[in-house]
Amino acid sequence: MQTPVYLDYNATTPVAEAARERMKPYLRERFGNPSSGGHAFGWMAEEAVELAREEVASLLNVEEEPAEALTFTSGATEALNLAIKGVARAYRSKGRHLVTCQTEHKAVLGACEALEERGWDVTYLPVGADGCVDPARFADALTDETVLATVMRANNETGVLQPVEALAETARAAGVLFLTDATQAVGKIPFHAGAVDLAVASAHKFYGPKGAGVLYRRRRRRPRVRLEPLIHGGGQEEGLRGGTLNAPALAGMGAAAALAEEHRDAERLGRLRDRFEEHLRGALPGVQINGAGAERLPQTASVTFPGVRAEHLESELRDLAVSTGSACSTGTQAPSHVLKAMGLSDAEARATLRFSLGRPTTEEEVQFAAERVTEAVRELRREPCNVPVAA
């Protein structure tokens, strides 16, 4: 076994070999611009992009024509901004109210805050101690002025799954569009884009390259979802996102999507995650598993170690790659907004690490991680080493 052991797959994943091989020709031999329609180099690049669109559509279970329903972007953050701001601007004559959740990704919260500065009203729904939105409270928040509601499918810090299909039905009955950030869910658990109006995913979360993301928008049921573009230019992506498409990255995204359909590993990773959590609970007094009372992603564990500062623990674990929270909030000293919304104190939030497993994770690595974390926490707590350790 090699160290450091990587347990930060929610932050990013290694590019799968199939994705890397798919990308290589479009970096050199087939380097054309997908928008260059007058020669073979452009045609080959365009074919790679459209194949990727079909493969991503299959992974998302898109029922509409992929060319109409999927817009490629540079990643989930851009896609979320396009969805939120694009809907707000397109439907501003109907109303200027949005509904979201306090535990959303910073890309969602930041986009909503930007709209608030421009006159929109935003309702930020609380969550329970399990991290879940109350469906009744969600329904009550929708008004005649609401144009969009957005709740993520899977939380990036805790793995908590929200009942987005039921929430989307509630929104649809109220005449409100529903967006879900499916970035952490796609490729890990089955996802059906047709249950919502808009959805977002990112290639590097399912073993594709960084710099490639996608926005799904409903096109089949009437009325079709309208958006105003954020990036104007050459009219690419049905006019929704100007700029030259990253053909190599999108080719890799398509290959990774095809691979994800064939190699979901949820059952095995769920067993490893549960074994890891059981070890820590048995070995360390007071350990808390955040979101344990809710349905979660099978490979995510958010663990609070009372009496220990997470950054101190992380620095002790040089042979493990783990995270104190979202990789997109690097540099902030504030406690996790997700954990605070779930009722944790500042001290508890600052005593929390996220462990996320992936396809390459082995049983040996999980056992090693559990033992190393136990050892490091005991050392930081200055506890005697005679606390029983789970087998």
Brief sketch in words of this structure:
The protein has helices spanning 17-23, 40-59, 66-69, 76-90, 106-116, 135-141, 164-173, 247-262, 266-283, 310-316, 337-341, 346-349, 363-381, and strands at residues 5-6, 70-73, 97-101, 121-125, 146-150, 177-181, 198-202, 213-217, 288-289, 300-304, 320-321, 352-356. It is of the alpha/beta class and 391 residues long.
Provide structural commentary:
The protein is α/β, with parallel strands linked by helices and 391 residues long. The protein folds into 2 domains: 5-12 and 264-381, Aspartate Aminotransferase, domain 1 (Alpha-Beta Complex), CATH 3.90.1150.10; 17-262, Type I PLP-dependent aspartate aminotransferase-like (Major domain) (Aspartate Aminotransferase, domain 2, 3-Layer(aba) Sandwich), CATH 3.40.640. Helix content is 37%, strand content 13%. It has helices spanning 17-23, 40-59, 66-69, 76-90, 106-116, 135-141, 164-173, 247-262, 266-283, 310-316, 337-341, 346-349, 363-381, and strands at 5-6, 70-73, 97-101, 121-125, 146-150, 177-181, 198-202, 213-217, 288-289, 300-304, 320-321, 352-356. Strands 2-8-7-6-5-3-4 form a 7-stranded mixed sheet, sandwiched between helices. Strands 9-10-12 form a 3-stranded antiparallel sheet. Strands 1-11 form a two-stranded parallel ribbon. Strand 3, helix 5 (106-116) and strand 4 (121-125) form a beta-alpha-beta unit. Helix 2 packs parallel to helix 8 (247-262) and helix 4 packs parallel to helix 5. The longest helix is centred in the N-terminal third of the chain and has 20 residues, at 40-59. Residues 384-391 have low confidence and may be disordered.
